[in-house]
Amino acid sequence: MQDARWLALAAPGLIFAGHAFYGAMLPKTALTLALLAALTLAGAALAPGLRRDLDRLRPPLLPAAAFALVLLMALWSLTPFAPGGPHPVWDYVDAGTAATTVDKSQTLLEFTKLLGLAAVFGLGLALGGSDSRARAGANTIVAFGAALAAWSFLDWAGGDLDRGVGRHRLEGPFEAANTSATLFGVLLVLTLGLAASAVRGAPPGRRLTAMAPFLAAALLFLFSLIATASRAGLASTAAGLAVFVGLQLFGRRQAWPRAALLALAGLALLAGAIFVGGDVLVDRFLEDDLAEDGRAMLFQAHWDAFKAAPWLGYGLGSFDLVNRLILNAGNIEEIWATRAAHNVYVTWLEQGGVLGAAPMFACVGALIWTSLQGTLRRSRLTSPLYGLLAANVVFLVHGAFDFALETYSMAALWSLLLGLQFAASQGRPRR
C-alpha cells in the first residue's frame, strides 16, 4: 500500500471491465468508468511512495496545456460567441440559448468523458513512476488481454453451435470486428516487447521458459486478430510490428543478423497463421468490396461538412445529428444508418474544428515524441517501451480507417498506455 503496487492490477482491471461491457459505449457505462478512474487515482495518490515517484517525473506541461485547450474549446462551443457564430439549427428550435455546437448535452457528455480519460492518463503516469509497477502493469494488461482473447476466440469458434449459424468474423465483446482487431494488434506488439525483455533478463538456460508465457499470449492475439478478418487491422498491426523491429534494431543497435532472423521468423509465423486460419481475411483482401465505395462516400460527405464549419466544428459528440443533417438523395442509401465516420481524424476535425482538433493532435504527438526521446536514452525497460511505442502506431494507423478510438474503453486503454510510456521513459530507478 505504501507505493500503490495494487494499482498494477486495479488500473488494467478497470479498462478491461470497460471492454467487457461492450467497450463502455453507453453513456452510463462510460461515465461510470470515468468516475471509477478518478476515484482510483485519488486512492493511489494517498500512497507516499507513489507521490515520491511522481515528484521525480518531469510534468507533461506541453501535453497538459494542449489538452486544457481542447477542454476550453469544447466549453467555448457551448456559447454563441465562437468563430462563425451559433449554428443555424438553433433558429429552428426553442431550446434556450443558441450555441456553436448543435447538441449541448452530447458536448457536455464528451467533455466529462475527456476528464475521465485524463484520470486514466494519470493512472498510467502512476504505473510508470517506477520500473516495477510499469512492468507489472504491462504484464497484467497482457494477462487480461489473453483471457479476453481466449473467450472471444472460443465464442467465435463455437458460434455456429450456439446460434445455428456461422459467424465469419470474430467480434469480441465490442460486437465490432475492427475494434477487436485494434485491441489484439496493440496487445500483440506490447507482448512481443515484454517477451524480448524476458529473454534478455533470463539466464541462458532459462530463456525459453521465461519467454513461453508471452509467446503463448502472442499466438493467441495473432490468431484472434486474423479471425477478425480486418484488413486495416492487419495492416496497422504490421506497421506497428515494423516500428517495433526498427526500434529493436536501431534503438538498441543490435546486430543485423539477429534482428533480421527475428523479423523473418515473425513474417513466417504471420504467413503460416494466415494460411491456416485466414481464409476469410484473404477473401476480403481479394474481393471487390462495395462497402469501400460507401466508406469513401461517407468520408467525402463528412469532410465537406467539416469544410462548412472549419473553426470549431459542430461540437463534440455531434456525429449522429450532423450525419442526419447532411443526408441527401445521393448519399442516403449509403450513410443514413452509419454511426461513425470511420476516420478518427475527420471525426475530430468535424466535431472540434481546427481549434479543437489541432491541440488534441498536438497533445498526443507531444506525448509520443517525448516518450520516444526518453526511451532512446534508457538502458533498462527498453523492449517493453518499444512495444508501447509500437502500440501507438497501431492506434494511429487503424484510426484512419475505423472507429476503435470512438469506443470509450479503447480510448481509455490508449490513455493508460500513453501515461505509462511517458512516465517509464524517464528512467526512474527500479523499485
From TrEMBL:
Its main location: membrane. It is found in: Membrane. InterPro entries: O-antigen_ligase-rel_domated (IPR007016), WaaL-like (IPR051533). It holds the Pfam family Wzy_C. Residues 216-358 form the O-antigen ligase-related domain. Keywords: Membrane, Transmembrane, Transmembrane helix. The chain crosses the membrane at residues 30-49, 61-82, 111-129, 136-154, 174-196, 208-226, 232-250, 259-278, 353-372, 384-401. It comes from the Bacteria. GO terms for cellular component: membrane. It is a multi-pass membrane protein. The keyword Transcription does not apply. The keyword DNA damage does not apply. This is O-antigen ligase-related domain-containing protein. It comes from Phenylobacterium zucineum (strain HLK1).
